[in-house]
Amino acid sequence: MDEPNDTAPLTLEAKLTAIVAPRLEIMGFELVRLAVLGRERPTVQVMADRADGGLIAVEDCEQISHYLSTVFDVEDPIPGAWSLEVSSAGIDRPLTRAKDWNRFAGHLARVETLFPVDGRKRFSGIVLGADEDQGKLRLDDGTEAALPLRDIRRAKLVLTDALIAFTAPAPVTN
User: How many CA atoms lie within 13 A of 103 on its CB side?
Assistant: First the structure.
């Protein structure tokens, strides 16, 4: 009987994630999402959060961009010409990790799965949190949907007044 092949080649996104995530951690940031768009001259999109939970600033994105550009130039993981975009996750951010689902519990999200769950692929509801395997939503009809995190194609918070208030910086007091 054949053994499973654990040496399948990594995708470019997986290779870049393995390079980027630990370096961001050293810098005090967390990788939210990494995407590679385009083929002729790919754009590497890096979305990051501050590890301390604070708001990411333009200067933080610049610092990350300069550092990762240098790393990519030295390690050369991308064949040919490429460009790099670094951004914050934003208010209406994607939910890519269980910790995102837990942090934003109580807020409205839209989710699309790769495979049908209970006969459908698109969901909208209030985030209830997640464990390592499943994110949970309370749907408009009051039912709950448990969605396998590995099968989520896209999950994103919906911009609402409650979300804006939740993500607003605390007022400075003197």
Answer: 15
Residue found under tokens 């989710």: 111
Tens of pLDDT, residues 159-169: 999 988 888 77
Residue 14 · residue 31 · CB < 8 Å: no
Residue among 36, 44, 39, 48 at smallest CA distance from 84 = 44
Q: What is the DSSP letter of 82?
A: -
Domains of the chain (ranges, CATH numbers): 12-88 (3.30.300.70), 98-167 (2.30.30.520)
Q: What is the C-alpha to C-alpha distance for residues 23 and 72, in angstroms, rounded to an integer?
A: 12
Q: What is the pTM of this model?
A: 0.79
Query: For 99-127, how does the pLDDT look when each residue is reduced to its tens digit (9 = 90+)?
Result: 999 999 999 999 999 999 999 999 999 99
Cβ pair 93, 127 in contact under 8 A: no
